[in-house]
Design goal:
It is a single chain. This protein is of the alpha+beta class. The chain has 4 domains: about 5-30 and about 205-295, Orthogonal Bundle (Helix Hairpins), CATH 1.10.287; about 50-200; about 310-360, SH3 type barrels (Roll); about 370-455, Alpha-Beta Plaits (2-Layer Sandwich). It is built from 11 helices and 8 strands. The protein has a 5-stranded antiparallel beta sheet with strand order 4-3-2-1-5. The chain has a 3-stranded antiparallel beta sheet with strand order 6-8-7. β1 and β2 form a beta hairpin. α1 packs antiparallel against α4 (about 200-235), α1 (about 5-30) runs parallel beside α5 (about 245-275) and α2 (about 50-130) packs antiparallel against α3 (about 135-200). The longest helix is centred in the first third of the chain and has 81 residues, at about 50-130. The chain starts with a helix and ends with a helix.
Length: about 475
C-alpha cells in the first residue's frame, strides 16, 4: 500500500469520527427524558451574569450525578447477586430433572422385573396344579412375594420421581421470577444511565465523547500498525516469489484489518450515542425492521459476503496472484468479504463484487508454464530448429538469474501445426508463479538472435503481386483492330 493510500485511509477514518462527533453534539442539544426519579433543582434558572447562582446549579447537578452513580453501583451489585442466584437455582433444577430421569429408569427396570416374576409365577402355578409338589408351591409363594415387593419399590420410585419433578417445577418458577427481576433491574439501570446523562452538562458529555474517540483512535492505530508489522515479519524479502503460505497470510491480514475497522466504527457509534443519553434499544429495533424492509435489496450483499468467505477459505486466489475473472484480468491487490480489487497492465483498477465471481483462471497457483509457439519457414530443418531451441533453454537454466526462475528442463511438444507460411513448433518451460511471461520474453529474444546467426528464417506475412506479360494483352489488340 502506497503512502498516499495510507494517508487517504487515515483521513477517511478521521472524517468519520468528525461526522459522528457532530451528530452527537447536535443530539446533545435535545433534552433526554429521565424516567428514574432523582433530585432535581426546582429553582428558576439563574440570570446571566449571576455567577454564584450558576455555581450552585452546577454543584446541585454534580451531587445528583453522584447519587445516580451510587444507585447504579447498587443496582449492578443487586443484578450480580441475582445472577448468582439464577445460576444456583438453574443448577438445582437441572439436578432435580436428572434425578427424576434416573428414578424413572430404575422404576421402569423394577416394573419389568415384577412383570417377569409374574410371568414365571403363572408358569409355576400351572405346574403346581398338575404335580401338587410342595416345593413348587413354595417357589410360587416366593415368586408372588418377590413380584409384590418389586411393584411396591417401583411405585415408591415413581413417587420420588414425581417429587423431583415438582421440585424442578418449583425451581423453574423461582428461576423465571429471578430472570424477570433481573430484566427489571437492567431496565432501571438503563434509566439511571439516561438520567445521569441528562444531568451531566454539555462539557462533561463532550469530554466523555473525546475520551471515547481517543480510545477508538488508539484501537485503530494499534490495528493498523500491528497488521503492518505482521506483514513485514511474514514478507520474504529475498525470495523471487513469496511462498503460498505467506501470500495466504497477507490476504487474511487485509481481511482482518477490514473487519476490525468496521468493528471499531460500530463501537464508536454505540459508545457516542450512549454518552449523550440516546437509548440504543429503539434504534436496534428500527434497524431490524429496516433490515427486513431492505432484505430483498440486500440479497446481493449477502451473496457477495458468502461467496467471499468461500473464496478465502478455499484459497482460490490471494494477494499478488494474476487472475482472470470473467472478461477482466489483472494482479490481485485486495480481497475482502465483499469485493476483489484487480489492477491490469495499464494501471487501471477493477472492482469485482464477489457475488459476480463465477469462474476464476489463476495464472500463478503453485507454478506456471511458459507455453510458446515458434514458427519457422517450410524450407528449414525442424530437427535442427528443435535442437537449437533446446540449447537456448539449457543456456537459460545455467544463467545466474533465469536459472532461479525455471523449475525444470524444456518440454519439447514437437510440430504442432502447419500454417499458411510457417511450421509451428510448440514447447513449454515450467517456471515459478508469475515468472512465465518474463521467461518467455527472454527466451524469444535469445532465440531470435540465434536464428539470425545460423540463418534460420522466421516467416512473416507478405503478398506477391503478378502483373502478367506482354502476350497476355494481345487479345485486346486483336479485338481493337477488328473494330
Amino acid at each position: 500500500m502506497s503512502p498516499k493510500t495510507k494517508k487517504r485511509n487515515l483521513g477517511g477514518f478521521y472524517l468519520i469520527i468528525f461526522i459522528f462527533s457532530a451528530i452527537s453534539f447536535v443530539s446533545a442539544q435535545e433534552p433526554s427524558p429521565a424516567p428514574v426519579k432523582v433530585e432535581e433543582n426546582t429553582k428558576q434558572s439563574p440570570a446571566p451574569g449571576n455567577l454564584e447562582a450558576i455555581q450552585k446549579v452546577l454543584v446541585t447537578d454534580q451531587k445528583a450525578v453522584k447519587e445516580i452513580e451510587k444507585k447504579e453501583e447498587k443496582t449492578k451489585a443487586i443484578i450480580a447477586k441475582n445472577e448468582e442466584k439464577v445460576e444456583a437455582v438453574q443448577k438445582k433444577a437441572e439436578e432435580a430433572l436428572a434425578k427424576k430421569e434416573e428414578l424413572e429408569k430404575i422404576a421402569a427396570i423394577k416394573k419389568e422385573e415384577a412383570q417377569t416374576a409374574k410371568e414365571e409365577l403363572e408358569t409355576v402355578k400351572q405346574e403346581a396344579v398338575l404335580n401338587k409338589n410342595p416345593e413348587v408351591l413354595k417357589k410360587a409363594k416366593q415368586l408372588t412375594q418377590n413380584a409384590e415387593r418389586l411393584e411396591k419399590e417401583a411405585d415408591i420410585l415413581n413417587k420420588k420421581a414425581g417429587a423431583e419433578e415438582k421440585r424442578a417445577e418449583t425451581a423453574q418458577q423461582v428461576l423465571d421470577v429471578q430472570l424477570k427481576k433481573i430484566e427489571e433491574l437492567k431496565a432501571q439501570l438503563t434509566d439511571l444511565s439516561r438520567a445521569k446523562s441528562a444531568k451531566r452538562g454539555l462539557v462533561d458529555k463532550l469530554i466523555a465523547a473525546g475520551y471515547t474517540l481517543a480510545i477508538g483512535l488508539v484501537l485503530f492505530l494499534i490495528l493498523h500498525f500491528g497488521i503492518k508489522k505482521f506483514e513485514e515479519i511474514i514478507t520474504e524479502k529475498e525470495a523471487i516469489r513469496e511462498s503460498e503460505s505467506a501470500l495466504r497470510l497477507k490476504t487474511l491480514s487485509k481481511l482482518f484489518r477490514w473487519m476490525g475497522s468496521l468493528g471499531i466504527i460500530g463501537f464508536l457509534i454505540y459508545a457516542l450515542l450512549e454518552h449523550f443519553g440516546i437509548n440504543m434499544a429503539p434504534l436496534l429495533a428500527g434497524a431490524g425492521i429496516a433490515g427486513v424492509a431492505v432484505g430483498f435489496g440486500g440479497q446481493y450483499l449477502i451473496r457477495d459476503i458468502i461467496n467471499g468467505i468461500f473464496i478465502l477459505v478455499e484459497g482460490q486466489y490471494r494477494i499478488n496472484d494474476v487472475v482472470k475473472i470473467g472478461d477482466h484480468g489483472g494482479l490481485v491487490e485486495d480481497v475482502n468479504l465483499r469485493i476483489t480489487r484487480l489492477r491490469d497492465l495499464e494501471g487501471r483498477v477493477i472492482y469485482i463484487p464477489n457475488g459476480e465471481v463465477k469462474t476464476v483462471i489463476n495464472f500463478t497457483k503453485e507454478y506456471a508454464q511458459a507455453l510458446m509457439d515458434i514458427g519457422v519457414a517450410y524450407k528449414e530443418n525442424v530437427d535442427q530448429v528443435m535442437k537449437i531451441m533446446k540449447d537456448i533453454a539449457k543456456g537459460m537454466r545455467q544463467d545466474a538469474y533465469f536459472g532461479r526462475l525455471i523449475l525444470d528442463d524444456m518440454e519439447m511438444l514437437g510440430v504442432d501445426s502447419f500454417s499458411d507460411s510457417a511450421v509451428i513448433i510448440k514447447c513449454r518451460i515450467k517456471t515459478l508463479p508469475i515468472k512465465q511471461w518474463e521467461v518467455m520474453r527472454e527466451y524469444r529474444r535469445r532465440l531470435k538472435n540465434r536464428f539470425d546467426e545460423v540463418g534460420i528464417e522466421i516467416p512473416f506475412p507478405h503478398t506477391t503481386l503478378y502483373w502478367g506479360t506482354g502476350r497476355d494483352n494481345d487479345w485486346w489488340r486483336e479485338k481493337a483492330l477488328k473494330k
